[in-house]
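Task: encode each sequence below as structure tokens.

Item 1
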Amino acid sequence: MRRPGAGEVGIDVAYAGLAGWPYRPGLEVAGIVRAVGADVVGLAVGDRVVAVPGGGGLAEVAIARAGLTVPVPAEVSLRTAAAVPMGLATAMLLLTEAGRFAPGDSVLVHCASGGIGRALAQLVPLLGGGRLIGTVACPEQVDAARESGYDVAIARDDFDADTIRAANDGRGLDVILEPLGTGALALDLDLDLNVAAPGARIVLFGDASGGALDPLPPAGRLIGANISVTGFSHRGLVAGAPQRVAAAIRRTLDLLAAGRLDFPVTELASLADVPDAHDPLADGRGAGKYVVLIDE
């Protein structure tokens, strides 16, 4: 394994988080600093940290930029910390930056049963949100979504614009988080536009469908309804604004350390269990956030 270069940190990985397609395996790790490169300040050998290595984290040793490596408070386990960068921190960025969330806002989350969906269920009420509605891929996921914190959870085959509005007492939603994972963009956005409140923010992220994206709606429809549609890319922030990713990681770690968040994860016992775990992630059946034990 190569030594960390300037501005980099080498980490003995204890746990690594799993993310579904299109992300490269091993984008988040938690463990112990084993070596630091030149020009690294604020981190030392032996520190407990969580990091975004940019891939390759499903290994005994990972290399990450120091700017994307954050100390883990003593009150937070490395097991939980490994789920933060692509889970709680991403959800925080989606809400507060891309979605411009404000206290009292109602929120609609598509694919609510996954890791991001569960993280949002924790954060929306903590940040003072109003009604939280989630859609899930199949009826079997409805109860789990409700148990994770959603006021209303609806299976995809059972909802339309009228159903979603009724779940919010007939009103439109203020923030709509759309991962594009359940159909053509045009169809999903048409539904989202029909359930959006005046001034709503629709956030497109993830591109979980993997297909080519259809054109956005005509500008007149957005202008007339005072609706904004914005994109969000975790990978883009890691590359172009890593300080914002690190700040979100620190903020959520502090909330975990203070006991204000309780983020359950599903632990895989070894790397041998990873391929089977990716199957439900790929087809929308995954429940919550997965981490794999690398080395205790």
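Item 2
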Amino acid sequence: MIQLADIERIAPGVANLSPEEHEALQRFTLLWTLFEAQVLENNASVRKISEIVDSLDVHVVEGDWFKEQLVYFRERYVEDGNTNYRFGHLHLRNNDNPERVRSVLVENNEDPKTQLIACLTIVYRFRNNFFHGLKWAYGLQDQFDNFTHSANLLKMCLEKIPHGI
């Protein structure tokens, strides 16, 4: 059992995380720091994500290697062909290019590079919302799948994207 009772007073709800939730958060945190260091050269931003993905050979993003995550994000953030209330909870900023993300989610943009950028933008917002406290506001409820899919996408990106390009 994971012992977190000593920080429960300052991080309410953390002691109630299941071992699976704790592992998902650990994997996400570790993989994000590796992705930021190795792929984004310690310069995390949607602009940097876009630059890196746009610079890739198209064969790197072709195929279905991130389709599961794209489908997950579409199912989570789209209802009846429009983005839903959860989309607003990503707290996308203007420089995150929310219209690009929306166009991918509602299937108006099928370009693989744009799809990968949109997925990584969502992961970037999870990172910001988690590391900067917004997720703590509601005790990390409903986040297991977000962190699991995000960690899986980051792992695949670390495997597929050449480091230091």
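Check on item 2: The first helix runs from residue 5 to 8. The chain has a mean pLDDT of 89.
End of task.
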